[in-house]
Amino acid sequence: MSDLEQFDAWLTDTGPAALVIREHLMPVEGHDGVLFPATFAASEDKAFKGGYNIDEFTDGKNVCLIDSVGSQANRIEPLFAKGDYARLVPQVVVKAGDKRVNLLDAGHRAGDAIVRCSALQQKLQEAFKAVLNGDAEPLAKIAPTSLVFGAWDSRDTQAKLPRLIASTIRALDVRQLTRSAAYVPAVDYVDEGLLEEPEGLRTTEGKVKTKNPLSQRGFLHDVQGSATHGGVIAAGGIRRDSTLHLAALRLLAAGSDEQKTMVLRRYVLGLALTAFTHAPSGYLRQGCNLVLDPEKPREFKAVYGDGRREDAALTHPDALAYAKAATEAFGIGEDREVEFDKESARKDVADAKDKKKKRAGADAKKAE
Question: Containing domain of residue 210, as a range?
């Protein structure tokens, strides 16, 4: 069996539905260390008031989202712009003003506005249309990681590609903490006669009516936060669950050509395995630096459609070696640097407004 054929069993319909990795994590301070989850804005209907995303259950337990699927993808995908990994995918850069944005850093990847409004617009549109017609090869030549981490061309062709890799970090049975903070200036500038407090800021009882500009500029005592989010303690542990959906990967095709389809699937599998086995940084944000829990072993399973769960073993260097061989066989797309087209962006906005008006008119006629 050649190096290229070693994972072909995973690319057949009798292969695993998915590969699953479960890692148990802990704060660098220890199991009972405080960590700061991601915070989210309030929902429009205010049903979610904002802050930490903690789901409460009737049995008193809860689950706290530490890092979402999208956030994890955004941390992993830029890997393919560095070192040896950069040779696995075409490097597509859009120059917008003084900034150069790699497609790997664009929020919506191949469906992002920055690349849609560039010289690549037509080629990407054709590639997405090809996906809709069962041929993912053209997109793999331009933006192959969009086949791995998912993409939705929501503002044009509506082509949608599922995430092959989904990774999430959650904490179980968390205890919420709060914190308060106050600022004390180096000198009491008003009492020392160095500055005068502006008139009209206090009531007759001496209370401050509005935010004092001296406080805003750091010349007065200031309470900067009272009982705000102070992190959590994960009493039930922290878990990173990652899944590589092989069943979804097997849906990718290069039209009706079986040989090209296998070459394409091996290439995408190589990229996916490289990303899947790479150990991402545990530093997620200020106050959230996670490491592996040495007391709980890492689990790596191949999960089959009949429910079987078999141990899997694949190192990151082996995955990278396979990816390099699969990339050579597929033929990597060309590197490109294109300019952001302002006129194309203006037209894009204008066309969207026109479509919205037409939809509103059509809805009004239906209501008559």
Answer: 178-230
DSSP 319-361: HHHHHHHHHHHH-PPPPEEEEB-HHHHHHHHHHHHHHHHHHHH
Same domain for 240 and 327, yes or no, is: yes
pLDDT tens profile 173-209: 999 998 877 778 888 887 788 887 777 666 666 665 5
Domain boundary residue, one of 230, 246, 268: 230
Pair of tokens at residue 201: 């800021």
Tokens of 319: 């995955």
- What is the pTM for the complete model shown? 0.85
Can you list the positions of beta strands (E) in 245-286? 283-285
- Bridge partner list, 152: 160
CA distances to 44, 54, 55, 140, 363 from 47, rounded to whole Å, are: 8, 13, 13, 41, 29
Q: Mapping DSSP to helix (H, G, I), strand (E, B) and coil, where does residue 212 land?
A: coil
> How far is 265 from 269, CA to CA, in rounded Å?
6
How deeply is 270 buried, as exposed, middle or buried, from its count of CB atoms within 10 A (0-12, 13-18, 19+)?
buried
The tens digit of pLDDT for each residue in 30-80 reads 999 999 999 998 888 877 888 999 999 999 999 999 999 999 999 999 999
Identify the DSSP state of 105.
G
Structure tokens at 37: 């989850």
As given in the structure block, the two tokens for residue 315 are: 């190192």
| Calpha distance 23→207 (Å, rounded) | 54
Examine residue 262 and state whether it is found in any structural domain, yes or no.
yes
Residue type, 33: G
User: How many Å apart are CA 315 and CA 274, to the nearest integer?
Assistant: 9
Residue 161 and residue 136 in one domain: yes
Residue 177 dihedral angles phi and psi, to the nearest 5°: -115, 160
Domain count across the chain: 2
Instruction: Give yes or no for a contact between 324 and 88, defined as CB atoms under 8 angstroms apart.
Output: yes
Q: Does 269 lie in the same domain as 149?
A: yes
308 phi/psi in degrees, rounded to 5: -60, 140
